[in-house]
Amino acid sequence: MSRLLLVVMALASRLPLGVLQRLGILMGRVAYWCAPRFAARLRTNLENSGIPQTYQESRDLVKQTAGHTGMGGLELFIAWGRETETVVSLVKRCQGWEAVAEAEAAGCGLIFVTPHLGNYDIAGRYLAHRLARPLTAMYRPPKLAWLEPLMNAGRARGNARTAPANAAGVRLVMKALKSHESTMILPDQAPGQGDGVWADFFGRPAYTMTLIPRLAQMDNVKVFFFYGRRLGIGEGFEVIFTPLTEPFTGDKATDAGILNRAVEGLIRQSPEQYLWSYNRYKVPRGVQPPEPKETA
Questions:
Q1: Interhelix angle for 147-155 vs 55-81, to 10°?
Q2: Of 18, 69, 196, 240, which has the fewest beta carbons less than 10 angstroms from its beta carbon?
Q3: Cα 162 from chain centre
Q4: How many Å apart are CA 52 and CA 55, to the nearest integer?
Q5: Residue 243 has what DSSP assignment?
């Protein structure tokens, strides 16, 4: 089954980027009208973020976001199915690489933080290609078991490795950082019980991982935020790197707030490209819900 799916993915990956993106826009908008839960979560999360200031802005952003969500789904054929050089050639611009190169040359372990914004798979493959030392990307095994080997086959190429988001994966990441290598982590996935704290994310409490601030406390480690922003249809991507500007303190609640504010800053740059349909505010199993906020 996996071999057949790999063949299908390889064939689909040959389609031009613009064709896949236009199909993705159509798929996203159809999903918006045909999947009420998907539509309601996308619309509610976006509107509650406070980013759209008027009804018309909200309506336009919802429409754009549905299209970008569909594009992200079909772009996986390229991100996982094409050879590295071809994927890298889709990145037309890069901002902030000088600071990354300087930190790597200094022998630092590097933590790269990328939310569900733009195309993080293409940005991740671009990153792994440019780094001189290996990149270990943490991932959460998908609910569809047959998808995991496809995902790993697409991501673990060349300089890139993968590590599951569990205790064994954390040990692999810590070993990589101690060896002056790099890791890539998505910060806006809800962690499991005991691995997070409640912190505001666009004004609402979200269960937020403590792993990134904890890893950042290791010796000689630097943190960068980044994402792959879509340019025009069929025009490729721009990868943007930003160093952590507000240092972590060692306090879990404070650091979760710092992490979420940094992620919010990235999202505000390209809000239409964020995965607003993700259930960021869910209460993971076994986790005590957040205390209700006091009202005046």
A1: 80
A2: 18
A3: 14
A4: 8
A5: E
Which residue stretches of the chain are H helix? Answer: 2-12, 17-34, 36-48, 55-81, 84-89, 97-105, 120-130, 147-155, 167-178, 211-216, 252-269
What Cα–Cα distance (Å) separates residue 51 from each residue in 24, 42, 45, 130, 268? 24, 13, 10, 33, 7
Q: Six-digit token pair at 197?
A: 């704290």
Q: What are the pLDDT digits (tens) for 232-241?
A: 999 999 999 9
Contact between 210 and 196 under an 8 Å Cβ cutoff? The reply is yes
User: Which residue matches tokens 């076994």?
Assistant: 286
CA torsion, ordered 96, 271, 253, 222, to nearest 10 deg: -10
Q: With DSSP H G I counted as helix, E B as strand and the rest as coil, what are the percentages for the chain, rounded to 5? A: 50, 20, 35
The packing angle between helices 120-130 and 147-155, to 10°, is 40
Nearest Cα residue to 117 out of 69, 171, 149, 59: 69
CA–CA separation, 79 and 9 (whole Å): 10
Q: How many residues does the chain have?
A: 296
Q: Are 177 and 105 spatial neighbours (Cβ–Cβ below 8 Å)?
A: no
The pLDDT of residue 1: 47
Q: What is the pLDDT of residues 168-182, one digit of tens each?
A: 989 999 999 999 999
